[in-house]
Amino acid sequence: MKKRTISIIILLAIVLIISIFVIDYMSKRPDRMKANPYAYDVEEYTHVDPKLINYRETRNFPIEGYKPTGIDVAGGKIWICGSGVLQVILPEGVQVLKTEIGENSSCIKVDGEDVFVGFEDHVEKFNGRGERLETWDNPGRNCVFTSVSCDDTHVFVADAGNRRVLVYDRDGSLKGEFAGASESAAGHGFIIPSANFDLAADQTGKVWVVNPGKHAIEYYDSEGEMITFWQNSSMEIDGFTGCCNPAEIDMLPNGDFVTSEKGMVRIKIYSDRGKMKSVVAPPGKFEEEVHAPEVSVDEDGTIYALDFDRNMIRVFQKTD
After folding, report:
1. How many domains does the chain contain in total?
2. Is the whole-model pTM more than 0.70?
3. Is 143 among the domain residues?
4. CA pair distance 299, 293, nearest whole angstrom
5. What is the SS3 string spanning 173-220?
6. Does residue 41 form part of some domain?
7. Closest-CA residue to 174 (of 123, 219, 210, 125)
């Protein structure tokens, strides 16, 4: 009798345990689970008040036959590099040059008749006809060149692989390098979680450098001394979010910044002190959770965005 009672108790216990497992499994099915109160939801941040948007897209040009990697607008022309190609088109979309340059480039800067093209581990200099003039030396191991800019004297190159800015003269002699300020309010030097590391030189021998891991834009002289910086980490429209933003920058003729972000893709305008002044293109203008368009500005302040996901150049002009 006792053995029978014990067997019944064990059987009931087994049934109970199995029932608990079944109920737990069923409750975790996607269609049965309760909403996660801690879920990371960015939907509310993708909406932008139309009053903040002071630009409109006026035209676009598809890039055909290769994958673009860099853009610069200079001298009334649009210069594009990528997948072994250097291409030049006019603002109305007419091609005036397309030539093979032999390797996969990553970035481009045009100044007068000098065309500086950055590759993964070196820079090459071309003339306005697309003819190669110089191939500069590789400055060391682990290079990942992501941006090039210049003034009348210097050529600045962002090396994401080594978290540094290289400083050349315009003939390719390496004059120095710097890794960002570590003993300042900015702190920690350049924090580069991914290959998103941009810079923009002005005409005073100085350069603005994005510190993407800090959501900051920092201003340096050619010796690597920090002059000033500003930063804004926020999910709100006037700040930067994600691991490494802004991903791309350029400067308007009045000294304001154009910034482009990846992840929650958007293009905005900031003053040189970091105050957001306008939205150029909200997240709804782009594919979700993808690459930041590279941005370049012409002499009139028109913004050209190289949309990597759509393989096209998109043109934004300020509205009245």
Report:
1. 2
2. yes
3. yes
4. 20
5. CEEEEECCCCCCCCCCCCCCCCCCCCEEECCCCEEEEEEHHHCEEEEE
6. no
7. 123
